Amino acid sequence: MQHVKIPQDRIGVLIGEGGETMREIEAEAEVRLDIDSENGSVAVDTVGDPVLGLKGPEIVRAIGRGFAPEDALRLLEDDMMLFDVVDIDAAARNKNDMKRKKGRLIGEGGRTRELMEELTGADVVIYGSTLGIIGAPQEVDAVRSAAEMLLDGAPHGAVYSFLEEKHNEMKHKGMEYHRFSG
Prior knowledge:
alpha+beta
């Protein structure tokens, strides 16, 4: 059994309407979730396939870091799917710097975050003081590198060029990204 702590305002998302999301996670990941809505603590107990069960805490953590449940469940699609978090707060000197860096990652109208998703194929969420990433290893690495470049003050144009380059690399290695539509 593993314990995961998630923010209070994400408990409702984890449970879902009438417990629907919680039941879906339990069925898909073959785990049992014991949610303490008072303090945000979630006990994740594996009840089926132990390999699938290992992804249970990651799914709960991903939802806690701002991902929609359907995006968090992508972690079960493939053994190689990863969930990673970039701590924006660690790169900031103070509250104002934190806001500025968060703004750089989001971009005008959310464009920078969207480009990270489009060009890598990973899901990217900025919530609180973190940037969460779900994707294949090379997708997660590309987003993490781009985020770190932005946090270090690199111009957006340079970061976009880097992402285009990574996109082309993945495309040429036969890892063409296609978002499933339907």
